[in-house]
Specification:
Blueprint: H1 2-18, E1 79-84, E2 96-105, E3 111-114, H2 115-118, E4 122-125, H3 131-137, E5 145-150, E6 170-179
Antiparallel strand pairs: 1-5, 2-3, 2-4, 2-6, 5-6
């Protein structure tokens, strides 16, 4: 009796496995359970303390995005948030990187620099930029977009640099295009 139950179960499993459309696609997926819905498209990640809101569609890497004005006191330390996680190699401290970026002031969202406005990615050796920018890109993977909030001590400090007043917290939205 035990042998016939095992044999019957094997026939049922073999028959079920053989069902399908004949094109190799197998059985159609089961309909969603009552009350459930199809999965939503990927959304922007949840806000991170100290990261201002971004303009546009921040997950669309074909378009620039920049930070708006921050709210409250700026963070005292470096803050990063991956908006899109890349799938390529990760940047290291000694690398030279190709990036698209927008740089704004945390205080009021003023855009002070943008590779997007020049129409091409910029190339930087990470050991030749302000420490917060380099530290913020380290570990980022090619194909990703990251927000980097840089406190003054990891940026330009008390120095005024062109449109950047001394003591400014900087916010960069950076797309890592490549590593040289």
């Amino acid at each position: 009796m035990k042998r016939s139950i095992v044999a019957a179960a094997a026939v049922v499993l073999a028959t079920a496995a053989g069902c399908g459309s004949g094109t190799g696609s197998g059985a159609p997926p089961a309909p969603p359970a009552a009350g459930s819905s199809a999965p939503a498209p990927a959304a922007a990640p949840a806000p991170v303390a100290g990261v201002p809101p971004l303009t546009g569609n921040p997950t669309d890497l074909t378009q620039p995005s920049q930070a708006e004005a921050g709210s409250g006191q700026p963070p005292a330390g470096l803050v990063t948030q991956d908006i899109v996680v890349g799938t390529g190699p990760a940047a290291a401290a000694a690398d030279t990187v190709d990036v698209q970026y927008s740089g704004t002031l945390y205080s009021d969202g003023t855009l002070f620099d943008s590779s997007w406005s020049r129409g091409a990615p910029a190339t930087f050796p990470l050991n030749g930029v302000v420490p917060g920018f380099a530290q913020g890109i380290e570990g980022m993977q090619v194909g990703g977009r990251r927000v980097i909030v840089i406190p003054p001590d990891l940026g330009y400090g008390a120095q005024t640099r062109g449109p950047i007043p001394g003591g400014s917290t900087l916010v960069f939205v950076v797309d890592l295009v490549g590593i040289q």
